Amino acid sequence: MSQAAVGQVVVSVALVLAAIALSWRARIGLERELAVVSIRAIVQLTAVGAVVTLVFQHVGLAAAFVLVMLGVAAWTSGRRIRAIPHGPLLAGAAIGLPALLALGLLLAAQAFPATPRGIVPVAGILIGGAMAAASLTGRRLLEELHDRLDEIETRLLLGASAREALATPLRRAVTTALVPALDQTRIVGLVTLPGTFVGLVLGGASPATAARIQLTVLLSLLFVELTASLLLAHLVSRVVIVAGERIEVPQAQARYGA
Amino acid sequence: MTPALLELDEVSLSRGGRVVLDRVTLRVQAGQVTAIVGPSGAGKSSLLRCAVGLDRLDAGRVRVDGHDALELDPRVLRRRVALVAQHPVMLPGTVADNLAYALPAGAVDGEAARRSLERAGLDVSFASRVAGELSGGERARVAVARALTRDPVALLLDEPTAALDPARAAGVEALMRELAGLGLAVLVASHDVAIVRRSADAAVLLEAGRVTASGTAADVLDAWAGRPA
Questions:
Q1: Which of A122, B9, B11, B156 suits A174 as a labelling partner, its CA being 20 to 30 A distant?
Q2: Which residue from A157, A242, A246 is facing B83, i.e. has the nearest CB?
Q3: Domains of chain B by residue range
Q4: Facing A156 at nearest CB: one of B15, B46, B54
């Protein structure tokens, strides 16, 4: 092992152990989760490192790899809206449509080479961003539906349609979900140097080229995340709005009069 | 007997496998105050919810002015039959915003707002107050004014005096009589025996989701008082 590799392993493992110790000392209760996600990350990245060489050599394998990414993202995000029937399916649609649309546009415009090496990393970033937005939207929307059901029912009682009654919770969920994407774009270059940029520079690209590619990804992500968030909010609201301008929230008791 | 303005016919409702209402029949006449009395958890609030289509009935039907409620646009039904919750929620914005919510632009002008506020016992200056900053008693009155801007034919009140001091409770009592005098059908769920005895023309006793007595307010209250606790 090279000197750099030894340093990487020793320091990163030491810092994870320190985080676990801190969580235990401060009684946060995240020790187990910190350990599990760290081990998962090691296993996943090692496995990807092994197959990525293969994936980069076959278009068919690359496409399959993108589908696996989408499946995992849909499943992860769907778990955040477990109360909603077919959560992973709704999340998959909300994540997949905007991510694949943006990917298709970028490839059609030849912004990235239509090769496995071009497709896989960009698809990963777009799907990852869409997943984060969908998860946050779903989680916040369910919180709104549970915590503010009496406000929503008040709107219904005053003669609003179910769609109108849900407009405010929907807007709150979407604006909350977009905060990370907006902040990430706002501070780019000032606080963070994002992964694509760093990777390209380390790989030998000029900083100007790296910045251009990073910007393409970052600005595309604004569309992808907003669309994923709106789509998920729309799909969830279609599930909870039932005939007769009523709203039925799964696993929720109507607040008023229940 | 004149046809009732609001009729609930053999209405049944269950929630999570539990029977909440069991074949409840109720008639509310225009120009009268009708009371639903009974112990907590008997289904009084649920009955009011069913009348405005907030819960899906397992069986039975609701009629408004002779029309099956299912044939009415739910948005129209909820304006004509206005339900004021026990703890009314104020929507964001001013009292004027609350009065005009979900109504066509311009439907609630200054004059309409003043009339509704005054009927609910509030000064017109309340229109510009921030709704979220009102006290409990003020909210209750704004909620009544908010219902009245929709020109309802029936007003459903859930425990309207529960959070009020005696003076304010007397105000609500007078308001119910006044609205009934204007021809509205007033349906009030309450376990305040004194107020029901004084202000209601008719009453039903609801126990464990079933109507166990109905008739004049005095008869029904006597029947309830005679029950073993």
A1: A122
A2: A157
A3: 6-90+156-225
A4: B54
